[in-house]
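Workshop exercise sheet. Pairs work together: one partner reads the sequence aloud, the other fills in the structure field after running the prediction. Swap roles for the next sheet.
Pair: D.N. / O.F.
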Amino acid sequence: MIPKALATQTITVIRPAWVDDGHGNLVADWSAATEHDIDGWSVQPSSPLGDLDHRDAVNYRFRAFGPPDADVQWWDRVRWEGHVLEVTGAPIHWWSATGAINHTELALDAWEG
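Structure field:
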């Protein structure tokens, strides 16, 4: 478990609705997304990447550490401190020595430019 003194932040999970694109494929419909808040997170910055392939773009990266039972999926987005970030990859569950899930880790990204 992340110490409560460090896990003081709340994230809002933004989950898309899934609709048929007319060809039998499910696609994310962000206009019909639902949201839910999860308390007990520590969101920390990672190193930004700049000038990717000379596109003058900046990728802001964050790591979020939160509750073991957090309802977050790899296709979700997260709102934190007014920023909408994409969940990059599957949530990682860290196990304790007792065999129980200790906490969940998320990789979060935002792009500018």
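Discussion prompt: The CA atoms of residues 47 and 61 lie 6 Å apart. What would you look at next?
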